[in-house]
Amino acid sequence: MLKGIDPLLSPDLLSHLRAMGHGDTIGVVDANFPAAATARRLVRLDGHDAVRVLDAVLSVLPLDDFGDACATRMEVVGDPHAHLAVFDDFLAVLDRHVDGHVTSLGALERHAFYEAARAAYVIVATGETRLYGNILLRKGVIRA
């Protein structure tokens, strides 16, 4: 155990978060996501929902505030403008951890999201049972 570090952050996950550089991407994905087939590096946290895992990750990970969306979700198939409760839950966590620059989530069509996830530095597979409980985060910098 470490002081001030969320116990959900396993040694493996902490190692990946620390190794990531500015602009690298991490995916936090639901239980239906093809994580093992998609991930270059995979961390499993099956007993926890995606919102709880997102909260733990953002307790140590700075988000990129340059350019377009630093947090991107998957669009609902057949209804790309649909707004689900899990998206609000993601935004609430982002609001707690980020100083006001994340007011909305970027969105990618399902297959484009899969392609973006394939390029991610690491994917964290969760036990999230809600559909579309998937989010990609782009790592930022810590300013002096």
The CATH class label is Alpha Beta
Tell me the strand order in the biggest sheet.
2-5-1-6-3-4
Helix content: 25-40%
User: What's the CATH superfamily, by name?
Assistant: RbsD-like domain
**Uncertain segments:** none
Provide the CATH topology: RbsD-like fold
Q: If you compute it from the alpha carbons, what radius of gyration comes out, rounded to the nearest whole angstrom?
A: 14 Å
CA-to-CA gap between the ends?
A: 27 Å
Number of helices: 5
Instruction: Specify the structural class.
Output: alpha/beta
Overall mean confidence score, pLDDT: 95
Characterize the largest beta sheet: strand count, sense, and whether it forms a barrel: 6 strands, mixed
- Quaternary status of these chains? single chain
**What's the helix-strand series?**
HEHEHEHEHEE
Can you offer a commentary on this structure?
With 144 residues, the chain is an alpha/beta fold. The chain has a single domain (11-138), classed as RbsD-like domain (RbsD-like fold, 3-Layer(aba) Sandwich). 31% of the residues lie in helices and 17% in strands. The protein contains 5 helices and 6 strands. The protein has helices spanning 11-19, 35-38, 50-58, 85-97, 110-118, and strands spanning 25-29, 42-45, 71-74, 106-108, 122-126, 135-138. Strands 2-5-1-6-3-4 form a 6-stranded mixed beta sheet. Helix 3 packs parallel to helix 4 (85-97). The chain is globular, with a radius of gyration of 14 Å. The model has no long low-confidence stretch (mean pLDDT 95).
Give me a quick take on this structure:
With 144 residues, the chain is α/β, with parallel strands linked by helices. Helices cover 31% and strands 17% of the residues.
